[in-house]
């Protein structure tokens, strides 16, 4: 399946596309304007940024990383 982006210059062309969609020859998906997509992306990034980690969450993450490193070192020393 190939995807195309089409800019309709004539409003009557929409009717033709709708007829093709009704015949299940094509599928029409309206996309947001690039500026709207960019704004929604910025909103998502800002939401993640505003979420502060607690000391417990940081400690758990550090412990997890240390366990993984220890396991890797132990595995290497066992194989030697």
Tell me the structural class. Answer: mainly alpha
**Assembly classification:** single chain
Percent of residues in helices comes to 55-70%
Largest sheet: none
In terms of per-residue confidence, which ranges show pLDDT below 50 for 5 or more consecutive residues? Answer: none
- The domain tally reads 1
Shape: elongated
Q: Tell how many strands the DSSP assignment holds.
A: 0
Give the averaged pLDDT, no decimals: 87
Distance between the termini: 52 Å
The H/E string reads HHH
* Content of β-strand: under 5%
Please count the helical segments.
Answer: 3
Radius of gyration: 26 Å
How would you characterize the overall build of this protein?
The chain has one domain. By secondary structure, the chain is mainly alpha-helical. The protein has helices spanning 12-22, 34-50, 55-79. It has 3 helices and no strands. The mean pLDDT is 87. The relative contact order is 0.05.
Compact description:
With 80 residues, the protein is mainly alpha-helical. Helix content is 66%, strand content 0%.
For the structure shown, list the relevant keywords.
single chain, 80 residues, mainly alpha, 3 helices, 0% strand
Q: Which helices and strands, and how do they pair?
A:
Blueprint: H1 12-22, H2 34-50, H3 55-79
């Amino acid at each position: 399946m190939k995807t195309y982006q089409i800019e309709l210059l004539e409003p009557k062309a929409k009717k033709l596309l709708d007829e093709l969609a009704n015949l299940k020859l094509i599928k029409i998906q309206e996309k947001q304007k690039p500026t709207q997509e960019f704004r929604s992306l910025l909103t998502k990034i800002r939401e993640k940024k505003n979420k502060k980690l607690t000391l417990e969450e940081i400690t758990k993450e550090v412990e997890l990383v240390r366990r993984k490193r220890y396991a890797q070192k132990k595995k290497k020393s066992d194989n030697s």
